[in-house]
Amino acid sequence: MPWFGLGVFKVAEGPELVNAVKTAIKHGYRSIDTAAIYQNEQGVGKGIEEGLKEAGISREQLFVTSKVWNTDLGYESTIAAYEESLKRLNLDYLDLYLIHWPVEGKYKEAWRAMETLYKEGKVKAIGVSNFQIHHLEDLFQDAEIRPMINQVEYHPKLTQKELHAFCKEHNIQLEAWSPLMQGHLLENETLKEIANKYNKTVAQIILRWDLQNGVVTIPKSTKEHRIVENATIFDFELTNEDMTIIDGLNENVRIGPDPDNFNF
């Protein structure tokens, strides 16, 4: 799985979405993350098809993720939702399929379906999203296969250290959604100071911090210059001191819903 990819949350169907995916592929992105609830899988699929053609690369060189929505959690319904996502994306398989939210009483049956999809070779990897430690421990009780990925809200104001340590211990790769806190961190003075020191943007500093923490990251953007800029994070390294300063910004503040208290 690539360490870096493009997220498309809140990007509506249409030319802007198709272009964003094509642009990302053109500039070397090899991971695209979507979900059924984003209602944009069709446009993502079109962007992938055109982007692969223009870049002259094969489908196998791209890592595509989607997620099953809460209303489809269940054994048969999760398998059906997977097939529907494939149809909309116009793909033969997904590289990663995730349970989007830990809906109580529903995610275990859905996980059984994920295991079936994986065993049948229909998906290359399976995982979860927004699962806390207790959700994972609960899932472990009945799971034959453990989740390979846990995609969670993760940024300097929400470092989730305990969850990260737990995932590492159980060989689950942590992946960050909303790594830039939907833009709320871009004016942070501490991050601006660090960015000036490296002659980088605040976004690049945060995304580099993700990587050095061993966290896969998928920032969202539709603008070409941002897509390029976000990916320019492999040509420098943050010092241990700066990593510690960024860690110190944590306030356990969420921009998204609380996985222990949501009603959708």
TrEMBL record:
<dbReference type="InterPro" id="IPR018170">
    <property type="entry name" value="Aldo/ket_reductase_CS"/>
</dbReference>
<feature type="binding site">
    <location>
        <position position="100"/>
    </location>
    <ligand>
        <name>substrate</name>
    </ligand>
</feature>
<dbReference type="InterPro" id="IPR036812">
    <property type="entry name" value="NAD(P)_OxRdtase_dom_sf"/>
</dbReference>
<comment type="similarity">
    <text>Belongs to the aldo/keto reductase family.</text>
</comment>
<dbReference type="InterPro" id="IPR023210">
    <property type="entry name" value="NADP_OxRdtase_dom"/>
</dbReference>
<dbReference type="GO" id="GO:0016491">
    <property type="term" value="F:oxidoreductase activity"/>
</dbReference>
<feature type="site" description="Lowers pKa of active site Tyr">
    <location>
        <position position="67"/>
    </location>
</feature>
<feature type="active site" description="Proton donor">
    <location>
        <position position="38"/>
    </location>
</feature>
<keyword id="KW-0560">Oxidoreductase</keyword>
<protein>
    <submittedName>
        <fullName>Aldo/keto reductase</fullName>
    </submittedName>
</protein>
<dbReference type="InterPro" id="IPR044500">
    <property type="entry name" value="AKR5G"/>
</dbReference>
<dbReference type="InterPro" id="IPR020471">
    <property type="entry name" value="AKR"/>
</dbReference>
<feature type="domain" description="NADP-dependent oxidoreductase">
    <location>
        <begin position="15"/>
        <end position="251"/>
    </location>
</feature>
<dbReference type="Pfam" id="PF00248">
    <property type="entry name" value="Aldo_ket_red"/>
</dbReference>
